[in-house]
């Protein structure tokens, strides 16, 4: 068989990493694949900037059609990002019979079903290992190595920017704003970090992981998403005092007739493995009925780690081509006619422990009023901290509840915050003890 040819859409940081990986490890790739791969075309609007890699004459083009409609190209790698024009380019490439590799988690989380349906109709593959966890091979683990398991949960730290910020705040006692600035200065956070710090990037990833683990479609608009911008240094200090760490946790749970899919700051016991995942690293914890709990850890982003995942997908498709297999592994890990449409459990019905920090005026009877409102809504107090140090006119009261339903906690807080004893909005952080 002649060389399998692939083309790139987008020649930015990740695209450059893919070319570097392919060129540096070409000999290893050929030994593992048993055939030649050829980087045939790259399409990008900027064909002048020096990316520090050498390309043959004619490889770089400003015309996307040179990749998606070129009869010589077997595999199209999409690295543009965003929804459009990436979706239109991918759909046209699929219509032209091209296999697709993408790192675009937002596109796959929101428009993945349309892309998958088109690919199934054309009999081509769509692989997206690089969309979740960077260099961590989580998607292939779910779809292949662990595919005989029924998964009860998938949880993870899926955004390196947020994990870096929370780690620095924990270790140095810093406030959010200066640590965010440091993350931007170091290149860990974008100039506009909204998608990262408000949890949207993490929500895209847990939507994909939940769909893969539980064999269901996931409506991204139904995924509860809360970021870390309101986390204060004082809450990290109280968490540490109580034996917890705060992480932006992505949570997917299989409840049988429905699923939980949510993203929010979460307190987890400091002794847990996930609590020890620091800096820009990611980790994903799967729980299968036969394999049990399994933790995958590594670089969740970056040029080299992402390029590694992209090229792994290119080689997986190439192996299928060489063996004569056609989409050997279903795109979402389940045969298309076996994928269900399970509803996502409403956030109001979630049951959790809760960390609550009230800021109150300094007067007698404050705790009794708060406890009375909580008790009225069947919320019992597990532990309490009332530090001796506080500002002159306000007192922080920190409570950890026993398990309670979200809607009951919400109703109680509405009543409490209407009291004249509350001087600032209450901080609520959910607590996960049982990660299964």
Q: What key attributes describe this structure?
A:
Rossmann fold; 6-stranded parallel β-sheet; Dihydrodipicolinate Reductase, domain 2; elongated; alpha/beta; single chain; Alpha-Beta Plaits
Question: What do you see in this structure?
Answer:
With 436 residues, the protein is of the alpha/beta class. The protein has three domains: 4-134 and 303-337, NAD(P)-binding Rossmann-like Domain (Rossmann fold), CATH 3.40.50.720; 138-299, Dihydrodipicolinate Reductase, domain 2 (2-Layer Sandwich); 349-431, 2-Layer Sandwich (Alpha-Beta Plaits), CATH 3.30.70. It has helices at residues 13-24, 26-33, 65-68, 86-95, 105-122, 138-145, 160-172, 176-185, 194-197, 200-214, 233-241, 303-323, 366-376, 406-417, and strands at 4-9, 37-43, 60-61, 75-78, 99-102, 126-127, 151-157, 224-225, 244-254, 259-269, 281-288, 292-299, 351-361, 381-385, 394-401, 404-405, 422-431. The strands form two sheets. Strands 7, 8, 9, 10, 11, 12, 13, 14, 15, 16 and 17 form an eleven-stranded mixed sheet that branches. A six-stranded parallel sheet has the order 3-2-1-4-5-6, sandwiched between helices. The two termini are 47 Å apart. The mean pLDDT is 93.
Largest sheet: 11 strands, mixed
**CATH-defined architecture of the largest domain:** 3-Layer(aba) Sandwich
Round the mean pLDDT to the nearest integer and report it: 93
Number of domains: 3
- Morphology call: elongated
- Rg over CA atoms: 24 Å
CATH superfamily of the largest domain: NAD(P)-binding Rossmann-like Domain
Classify the secondary structure makeup into a structural class.
alpha/beta
- Counting DSSP E segments of at least 2 residues, the number of strands comes to 17
Uncertain residue segments: none
The percent of residues in helical segments reads 25-40%
CATH class annotation of the largest domain: Alpha Beta
How far apart the termini lie comes to: 47 Å
CATH overall fold name of the largest domain: Rossmann fold
Strand content: 15-25%
The count of helical stretches stands at 14
């Amino acid at each position: 068989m002649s060389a399998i040819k692939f083309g790139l859409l987008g020649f930015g940081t990740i695209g450059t990493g893919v070319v570097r990986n392919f060129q540096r490890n070409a000999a290893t790739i050929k030994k593992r694949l048993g055939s030649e791969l050829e980087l045939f075309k790259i399409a990008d609007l900027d064909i002048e900037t020096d990316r520090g890699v050498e390309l043959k004459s004619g490889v770089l083009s400003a015309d996307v059609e040179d990749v998606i409609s070129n009869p010589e190209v077997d595999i199209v790698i999409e690295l543009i990002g965003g929804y459009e024009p990436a979706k239109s380019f991918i759909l046209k490439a699929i219509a032209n019979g091209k296999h697709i590799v993408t790192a675009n988690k937002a596109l796959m989380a929101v428009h993945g079903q349309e892309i998958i349906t088109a690919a199934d109709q054309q009999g081509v593959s769509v692989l997206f290992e690089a969309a979740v966890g960077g260099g961590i091979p989580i998607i292939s683990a779910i779809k292949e190595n662990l595919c005989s398991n029924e998964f009860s949960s998938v949880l993870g730290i899926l955004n390196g920017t947020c994990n870096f910020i929370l780690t620095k705040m924990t270790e140095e006692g810093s406030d959010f704003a200066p640590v965010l600035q440091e993350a931007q200065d170091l290149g860990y956070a974008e100039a506009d970090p909204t998608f990262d710090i408000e949890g949207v990037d993490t929500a895209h990833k847990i939507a994909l992981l939940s769909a893969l683990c539980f064999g269901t479609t996931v409506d991204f608009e139904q995924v509860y998403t809360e970021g870390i911008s309101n986390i204060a240094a004082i809450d990290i200090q109280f968490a540490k005092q109580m034996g917890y760490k705060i992480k932006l946790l992505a949570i997917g749970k299989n409840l049988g007739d429905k699923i939980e899919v949510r993203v929010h700051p979460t307190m987890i016991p400091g002794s847990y493995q996930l609590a020890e995942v620091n800096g820009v690293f990611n980790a994903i914890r799967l729980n299968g009925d036969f394999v049990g709990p399994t933790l995958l850890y590594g670089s969740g982003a970056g040029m080299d780690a992402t390029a590694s995942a992209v090229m792994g997908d290119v080689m997986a498709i190439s192996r299928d081509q060489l063996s004569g297999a056609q989409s050997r592994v279903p795109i979402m890990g389940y045969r298309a006619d076996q994928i269900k449409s399970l509803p996502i459990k409403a956030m109001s019905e979630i049951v959790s422990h809760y960390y609550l920090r009230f800021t109150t005026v300094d007067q007698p009877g404050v705790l009794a009023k708060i406890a009375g409102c909580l008790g009225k809504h069947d919320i019992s107090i597990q532990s309490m901290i009332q530090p001796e140090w506080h500002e002159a006119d306000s007192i922080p009261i920190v409570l950890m509840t026993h398990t309670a339903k979200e809607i009951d906690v919400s109703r109680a807080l509405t009543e409490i915050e209407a009291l004249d004893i509350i001087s600032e909005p209450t901080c609520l952080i959910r607590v996960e003890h049982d990660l299964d």
